[in-house]
Amino acid sequence: MSTESGSNATETTPSRREVLRHGLLGTVGLYLASQGAGRLAAQQVPGTPRTGKAKAVIQIWLWGGPPHLDTFDPKPAAGNDYCGPLTSPLATNVKGIVICELLPQLAKQADKYSIIRSMTHGNNGHETAAYLVQTGRNPSDRVVHPTAGAVVSLFKGKGNGNLGLLPPYMVLTQPQGRFSEAGFLGSNYKPFATGGDPNGARFVVEGLFGQATEEQIRDRRALLQRMGSLPRAVPGNPTLQALTRTEDEAYDLLLGDASKLFDLGQEKNDLRQRYGRTALGQSCLTARRLVQRGVPYITINFGG
Fold first, then answer.
1. Cα 17–19–21 angle (5° rounding)?
2. Which of 135, 158, 189, 302 satisfies CB 3.0 to 4.6 Å to 185 for a cystine?
3. What is the pLDDT of residues 111-169, one digit of tens each?
4. Distance between terminal CA atoms of the chain?
């Protein structure tokens, strides 16, 4: 450092503490500037990755569903051999996006969904193609990979959120059965498949509901507890304690609030009509109820 007084200049050597202080301030200043610039760039540069906000996924898997040409990727200029009579696609409420003329209501809400037209694969086998799409992996003889739902179940299962006893990965109503959804993660991460018909007079969920009434289930449980003397005879046995906990959880699912999730009679009739009084429509309504309860991943498998 130098100080000047009139025509006389004197040289002063800075102390180590002063050098460190100025160096530290400079470093902090550069760091803060870079952080601010980074945030500004993230706000201004299109395509900058952002953290997703989704809390749950409802995957609708249509077996034999309509092709992309007849739904979200019309190609009227391709000719009759490709598009048939569907030659007048609709403009949506998003500039530059058109969809099939058979989807007028969806055309009004294109700003609420994303269309991915670049996703494809060259696999012509239904089973192997389904595995590829569900797992993101090509089939292999050595390793069976888990589906996205099983991975979500691993990271968002019990102990995460407000699930309670509900499984984190559920299927309405039947699994595809073409491969193991859990893959190498094991059976603990398989989906809970409801079975039954959501549009029936009563949605009978397999493993939860049968022909017995709630009163009959309570009576049977009380009888089993009176007859089951082994836990009382061997108190503190870890195997029996684990069995008792599992039994309690099963009855909580049967008799607790979780069972009411599948009672679509609690919904107003006009809402059920809007979803459609079909197995697919009522499956979608059930999936909505499950998401509201905290289930993070639901697959609806519908055969066409």
1. 70
2. 189
3. 999 999 888 888 888 788 888 888 888 887 788 899 999 999 998 876 565 566 678 99
4. 83
Residue 285 CA to chain centroid, in angstroms? 16
- CA–CA separation, 22 vs 285, rounded Å? 64
C-beta of residue 152 within 8 angstroms of C-beta of residue 55: no
| Global confidence as pTM | 0.67
53 near 291, Cβ under 8 Å? no
Q: Could you identify the residue written with the tokens 């609709």?
A: 90
Residue that has been written with the tokens 């905290």 in this structure:
294
Q: Other CB atoms closer than 10 Å to residue 279's CB: what's the count?
A: 18
Backbone φ and ψ of 248, nearest 5°: -60, -40
Q: Which helix (H) or strand (E) holds 242?
A: helix 238-255
CA proximity to 60, closest of 138, 154, 173: 173
